[in-house]
Amino acid sequence: MTRQFFAALLSLSIALTAVTTAPARADDDIAKVLAGLVALGIIAKVINDKDKDKRVTRSHPQTHVYKPHKPRRAKVAPQRCLREQWTHRGVRNVYGARCMKRHAQHALPQNCKREVETRNGLRRFYAPNCLRRNGWRA
């Protein structure tokens, strides 16, 4: 756009100087030419500054925006779910299945769920060692 504008301005100024055929004094001609050159310089400077402003304010779409990761909550077995369970190997500390299902913050590993037949019926629980192997703090 700047080159086209300068070309048009230059051709206009040449055309206007050719139209004036009346003889003029040299002092007036030099003053008019200098004033015209100064005016052209000022106009060119203004246009150039506007182009620079446009170049500076343009923004390119960002391809990658850094987003910090949210800290993951630790997989912690709730202390309230810890129970003593009688087994054929003696008393063991286990986490009750129903309590863990209600109060655990993360999905429970199904391979850690155990069942034991007692006098009072079938008891389901999660073994602490198995939970630890699957990334839980038990």
UniProtKB/TrEMBL annotation:
Keywords: Membrane, Signal, Transmembrane, Transmembrane helix. The chain crosses the membrane at residues 31-48. Residues 1-26 form the signal peptide. Residues 51-73 are annotated as: Disordered. The keyword Membrane applies. This is Uncharacterized protein. It comes from Litoreibacter ponti.
